[in-house]
Amino acid sequence: MSKKCLAMVFPKTIAVFVLLAIYATPTSAQTKGDTVEIKLNEKLPKDPKIATLLSAILPGAGQVYNEKVWKLPIIYGGFATNLYFIDFNNRRYQLFREELGRFDAGDPNLNFPNMNRDALARNVDFWRRNRDLNFVVFGLIYILNIVDAQVDAHLSGFDISDDISLIYEPSYETLTAGGALVGVSLKLKF
């Protein structure tokens, strides 16, 4: 082989061995006679701190980190819906506040001619309260996004195996007041 050909093949070979060294677990290499078996890590558990920080900085980023991308439309749909209702309630609040200001100034009430001052004041309070409540809901959606990312990251290392069994066996316990208790105990093994 020429030096030029070796120079092209050698870096690719090293890259393959480096990737195998990075992804192979040190305890999973087993020697069976002349063959070596290497098992690669399928999925490493996610770090809850990173997921929490990412979701706090940019809502939905923690879900992307946890590989739960399907939750993004739910999160951003919640934000968009809430922003729509904040705008809707604010527009109604502004309208009734202007009408109340006109009524107090003695101008004719053109938009709501059948309402007196108390009705206008009640509507101003109602729409302002709804708008302010939507700001609280916006904060709750943001916090729920962070909590969801953290819980998902915590549960990413949870072992889900098919080895689930229900075992029943006799049970014998002594009581502190004297005497004994005999029965059957059920144990869920997972």
Model description:
Pfam families: DUF5683. It comes from Belliella marina. Residues 1-29 form the signal peptide. This protein is of the alpha+beta class and 190 residues long. Helices cover 57% and strands 14% of the residues. The chain is built from five helices and four strands; from the N terminus they run H-E-E-H-H-H-H-E-E. It has helices at 3-23, 48-57, 61-65, 72-105, 117-155, and strands at residues 30-32, 35-37, 165-174, 180-189. Strands 1-2 form a two-stranded antiparallel ribbon. Strand 3 (165-174) and strand 4 (180-189) form a beta hairpin. The longest helix is centred in the last third of the chain and has 39 residues, at 117-155. The radius of gyration is 33 Å and the shape is elongated. The model has no long low-confidence stretch (mean pLDDT 82).
Work out the helix count: 5
The biggest beta sheet is recorded as:
2 strands, antiparallel
Q: What share of the residues does DSSP label as strand, in percent?
A: 5-15%
Order of helices and strands: HEEHHHHEE
Low-confidence runs of at least 5 consecutive residues: none
Question: How much helical structure, as a percent, in the residues?
Answer: 55-70%
On the 0 to 100 scale, the average pLDDT is 82
Topology, please?
Layout: H1 3-23, E1 30-32, E2 35-37, H2 48-57, H3 61-65, H4 72-105, H5 117-155, E3 165-174, E4 180-189
Antiparallel strand pairs: 1-2, 3-4
Helix pairs in contact: 2-5, 4-5
